[in-house]
Amino acid sequence: MKKHHIRHGCILISVLICMIPLLMLNVSGEEYDTRCNHCGYDNPHWLDEDCVHYCRECGALGMPAIISDKNDSGTTTPDETDNNDPSPYDTEGDGDIPFEVVIGGAAVVTVTAVSIAKKKKKPGATTPRAKTRQPSTQREKSKEDQPAGYILQLSKDKVVLADGEDAVVGIRVMRVAGDGQTTVASNAQISLQMQKDSHLLVLPARGTGVLNVRIKQNSAVKQDIQESIQVTATVPEKTTLATITVMLNTGWKMVFR
What we know:
about 260 residues, alpha+beta, Immunoglobulin-like, 15 strands
């Protein structure tokens, strides 16, 4: 008789241990989805099992999921993004705003601007609901003023000079709007830095927005040499660099007859 009571006591303890997960579910107040992710069959017995869970319909592995952790499609997702953000553009940190360098005319600027605007567009962005599309005037202005990126444009980055010659290089910083339109970034700081012991004279060496830089030899050279000029462009969000390569010729030419 004593062994009989002990055996029943052990069975009772085992049953209570198996019921612990179910009791904790009830205490937490969470609702669980027991549908199979493969076939959609509902398996409520998973809540009572203290073991590996299999779908009774298709045999796939599964487990209960808290309904609050599932999205409308029924799949568990990580933390959701803020759906109240009316901007269809990424709100990344300032350091992530693209600042591209291009060489050439208006055509290459246009192509680059469109590419920047497309990359900045959020994948699958939709128009916000009416109730979330009522920002203040200040917030609307802030979103409109936020650039998709910037472009540092050089008319050319390679120059060949002989003694007494000069060349002009056009430099502009363009601001790219969300729709790909560009305007001159009038607040952009542009500066040019020549290498040590340079034979070049660069005027002007700094400015804002747009610069037409005149480059010429400041002193004669005894042999052909190559120098570089570093262009630095800075906007409130970012800084980028470009290089102009200058080939200085002695002016002597060899003629073969």
